[in-house]
Design a protein that fits this description.
By secondary structure, the protein is α/β, with parallel strands linked by helices. Helix content is 18%, strand content 30%. β4, α3 and β5 form a beta-alpha-beta unit.
Length: 371
């Protein structure tokens, strides 16, 4: 089975993490985010994966290689300009030397999931569908575009921004699709086409089905809040991934050449060459990338600190993200889902919270913000 993964978006909602690195390559715990999708697809028998790329494709190629280490064969297709979700699929099909097969998967490139794709493919075959949408239930349906499913699993319609009294379903699209080749005929070539807005509605009553992945783990990691949630869930084992197997009985995994004089509270994953100084407390639910330095007396909890970042003496980083090379001076407090972009430098005594995002290269002197 082939799969096409759409990775051509700019990932604006995950900035500043995606200001310098494309979303599929942003590290999630100990590997690029896309590794989870590839490992998941490989477990479900997918062998060939086409990455439909636009933004910064070179970094994606360098990070993922030929896919062998994830159990798949990767092909990259680069759009000259963004074609939209449908346009990107059609473009990829035209660019591939062998085209796409009679039946294939299409996936949004930002889902962390362990959904049973095999069950969705089996249902697709059994119903003779032209397209089968993977669906997941959500707790607060008012915030999403919803999908109505009938008892025979046909998609009965879509509800965009529904009023409270209209809501009679809690299913949303999971960004996991099984498609027959003939769906490509519904996408006009050479133009920007949204498959959600232009193709699915045309297929209602004409071969569009849905599979509800009840009970599966599913998360769109496209915002800082959800990126943190995904990291926490991987560490806690709430989603099936290869990371959990690396943790010891205390929930710890350390890379090589780490020096820990402070205290680790699992689950914690440390990259290579990390230093946790005397009196520092790291964990629970913390990821430190390679060569992260946590100074004496600092606290890091429920946080992601990417490679070469520094947490200064006595500082607190809780519920926040530090991108690669960020440097937090002494006695700072970084909380409230704040995100420090690559190479941000904070002097001593700054207080950053309330979802504040500092973009790559920002430098603040001592005591500059209390937010
Ligand atoms: P935001 O900018 O934060 O909304 O993120 P995004 O760019 O990823 O957009 P969105 O989540 O709406 O896109 C859903 C999926 O489709 C993502 O995996 C995108 O990478 C992908 N995608 C969106 N537009 C295009 C496009 O024009 N070409 C390709 N190849 N992929 C696209």
């Amino acid at each position: 089975m082939q799969a096409v993964i759409l990775v051509g978006g700019e990932g604006t909602r995950l900035r500043p993490l995606t200001s310098t690195v494309p979303k599929p390559v942003v590290p999630l715990v100990d590997r690029p985010f896309m590794a989870y999708m590839l490992e998941w697809l490989s477990r479900h028998g997918v062998e060939d994966v086409v990455m439909a790329c636009g933004f910064l494709p070179t970094m994606l190629r360098e990070a993922l290689g030929d896919g062998a280490r994830y159990g798949v064969r990767l092909t990259f297709v680069e759009e000259p300009e963004p074609m939209g979700t449908g346009g990107a699929l059609r473009y990829a099909a035209e660019q591939l030397p062998g085209g796409l097969g009679e039946r294939f998967l299409m996936l949004n490139g930002d889902v962390l999931t362990d959904a049973d794709v095999r069950a969705q493919i089996d249902q697709h075959e059994a119903t003779g569908a032209r397209a089968t949408l993977g669906l997941v239930p959500v707790e607060d349906p008012s915030a999403y575009g919803l999908v109505r499913l009938s008892a025979d699993r046909k998609v009965a319609g879509f509800l965009e921004k529904p009023k409270a009294e209209e809501i009679d379903t809690n299913l949303i699209s999971a960004g996991i699709y099984v498609l027959e080749h003939s769906v490509l005929d519904l996408i006009e070539p050479g133009r920007n086409v949204s498959i959600e807005r232009e193709v699915w509605p045309a297929l209602v009553g004409a071969g569009l089905y849905g599979t509800a992945h009840e009970g599966a783990y599913w998360l769109d990691i496209g915002t800082p809040d959800r990126y943190l949630e995904g990291s926490r869930d991987i560490l806690a084992g709430a989603v099936r991934t290869a990371v959990r197997e690396r943790l010891d009985a205390h929930g710890l995994a350390r890379g090589e050449a780490c020096r820990v004089d402070g205290h680790l509270r699992g689950p914690v994953v440390l990259g290579d060459g990390c230093v946790v100084e005397e009196g520092a407390v790291v964990g629970p639910h913390v990821v430190l990338g390679d060569r992260v330095h946590v100074a004496p007396g600092a606290t890091v909890e429920d946080a992601v600190v990417l490679s070469d970042a520094v947490v200064g003496r006595g500082s607190v980083v809780r519920g926040a993200i530090l991108a690669a090379g960020a440097h937090v001076g002494a006695d700072c407090t970084i909380t409230g889902h704040a995100v420090l972009g690559e190479g941000v430098r904070l002097g001593a005594g700054n207080v950053v919270g309330h979802g504040m995002r500092l973009f790559p290269g920002v430098e603040l002197p001592d005591g500059a913000v209390a937010f």
